Amino acid sequence: MTGGNTEELNVALSGRYRIDRQLGAGGMATVYLAHDIKHDRKVALKVLRPELAAVVGAERFLTEIKTTANLQHPHVLALFDSGQVGGTVFYVMPFVDGESLRDRIEREKQLPIDDALRIAREVGDALHYAHGLGVIHRDVKPENILLQGGHAQVADFGIALAASKTGGTRMTETGMSLGTPKYMSPEQAMGERTIDARTDVYALGCVLYEMLTGDAPFTGSTAQGIMAKVLTEKPAPILPRRDRVPAYVEDAVLTALEKLPADRFATAAEFVVAISGASGATSASTRARTGARAATTTSRRQLIVVAATVAAFAVAGGWLIGSAGANAEAPASYLALVEPGQGPAFSGVARSVDISADGRTIAYSARHPLGTRLLVRKLDASAPVAIPATANAFHVRLSPDGQALYAGQGAAMHRIQMGGTTWTPLNLEATSFLHYAEDGVLWWSGMLSTGSFRRGLDGHDSLVFPRSTVTQVIQGGRYGLGTENTTGTNSGLATWLDLRTGATRRIFEAPVVELRYTMGYLLYVRPDGVMLAAPFDARSGTITGAHVEIARDVSVSGAGFAQFGVSDNGTVVFVPGFNNDLVRVSRSGETRVLLSDLRRYHSPRISPEGQRVAYDDVTADGRDVWIVNMATRDVSRATFQRDGHDVVWAADGRAIHYLAGRGGKLDIYRTQLGSSATPTAFQARAELSYTGTPLADRSIITMVPGRAGRGTDIVRLRPDSAATDTLLATTADESYVVPSPNGRWFAYTSDHSGRPELYVRAMSGSDVQLQVSVDGASEPMWARDGRELFYRRPTSNGAELTSATLDLGSEPRVTSRKSLFDVSNFDAAGPHANYDVSPDGSWFVFARRAGADHIVVLQNVPELARRIARTGATP
User: One of 139, 200, 616, 751 is an active-site residue; which one?
Assistant: First the structure.
């Protein structure tokens, strides 16, 4: 059987894959578009060239290729499957419905500079990740870089490595070579057996050179001629051919193309830093260059430290962590970057980032196409690790030793051991104020009530500080820091606490959101997001020196905490502010700004007549609901409880429902707009997950923490009654419930199949359920006519809004599905949708991200504070 015979392949792969057509052929494999029968999806099936398969040996090749199946990165095309049938070796990867970088270069010749640099950064990040796992690509070229939504995915990772390791000298003896001459490093061209990450850096330099100039650095009529130039000639400068390319970019590319590996960047991460050009650094080499500008002599080592200190370095890509922070005389600020569209998740009511006491581990809640996920990152590791958890777990806290993670799931806190798979529930409400002392005593405060409790080793709780919220336990559990809330807003007064006697002392009178202690310094965040530091005597609770500003734009919650963590060794981690604008989007994806003032718009809902939009926002005065008139753009405040959120319109448009805290519980409130009457409470419950949707009979469809072990269940609450009707409760996680406009159906997501999919059920209680989505879903919303469901569908590069047309007759069915537009840059939420659809179904309202997409790590903060105090410099 030959790799190019489609009929033979279909016979051989019968029952597993169905070959549709050939997509292309390369030096190593023929590529087919195929249908994965088991999973009902399109895939790219690659058949190894028969002559190559004969040389490398099928069994050994398939054994080696298994290493690539462990590569999980947003810019790495995953390996789904591999095998052999009838002597034909094949491997299967996702089908990318886009184009290759080669296609784009051939069409445009030269790419826009920003696009070229972004693609190079994304590819560089993928390479750095793989290199950290010991995998060298060996065949980086435009054909192996696929573009979807403009973002890069690197294909065939490890294929060349597997062929090299299995083919060995037999390939050389038969005249076959691995790699493509235009992108081969000199050491590859010379046939050296041992190559490292710098070979891929060279190839990426070639690719960026071609994106900027339209040609590879070395070209020729034969492979031998090209390889001769690779070994003997220097690449032509870029600037004479395209003078708008920044000088530092040219210098970085030419450094990557050095003949000797020792003269190139040591890692792909260094190359990414160099082409970003932060802090005005213009050279990545230690030697002078001739050409269109004078050279600088900044070393690559210096460049990493300088570039990582500035916020201008917040580019899309994977994590990029430097390693020079050990120098106590040169404190460094590192921007820890996360994958595009899946950065740290903003929450106005729950802590989403923390750091271990030793400063080595960061835990954070990250955005995900289907909600959020928990990630843990060792600062010396190449990538974060996902923690198994239900969607939308918040209140992230690390144990003092960094060996366990705590998070709120549903209404309770849970604990998981690092490396484990099972979450253990704690007899404790979900809260961001949780602190373990060295003796095992737990200090905690509720999210909706004032006061701090001590839980002893016997599990008994006692209220020790009725007016203060403990924010940190210090000095081995002898003392603590806290805020005394005197205003009812998200800030309070800085307070020193004697944990043994219950005595308190005001540290200073200015309002703060939260405060921490490390290495002789008090760190605190003001309501405006500015972080300050001051020398502090922890035993007496007194400031001993000047306050200095060390950071700005720290994300501040309306629930009385800031999104930051502090380690015992002076390392600080924080999430920058997550502001966005409010936009109107047509079905074709055309976007128009409704409110350009950057704020924290959340859960926008369009009024029944389509003229107003309600949303909640976190301000210095707390979290409340606001309404904008779309015609005049006038904004008015609708609630005044400093904890109003998740708004839903009443059917007549004259009232709203929303969620707010009261006495340690959540309550659904209704308020009449334009009236001075006190809002009426629906039900006070500790376990409510969402406001829900009111029906015609005044009952409300919502969600509560699952009673069958995990996730949430779907329930119907009756007005003025404690009765609860369970509509759906299984061992799976049912979420995102929304009833149809006529009240006869409800849509929801469930992960019982292994991933969240969208379903529809009859409100009458029938067991018949219609599966609406086929490849993942979240955030469903009905069209007002009840014939269409919209939902967020995950893609390889983010997410898109999808429309499903339904026939809800005697035999409910989906009649069509249509992708509308990319929503990767629009904020997601859970367990409810974070957007709405207009009454006529022609437009939508979204909160569009405009804030940072990274986490900031400040190392050696005490030295940083001392330096600022000496020099008067601002951060």
Answer: 139
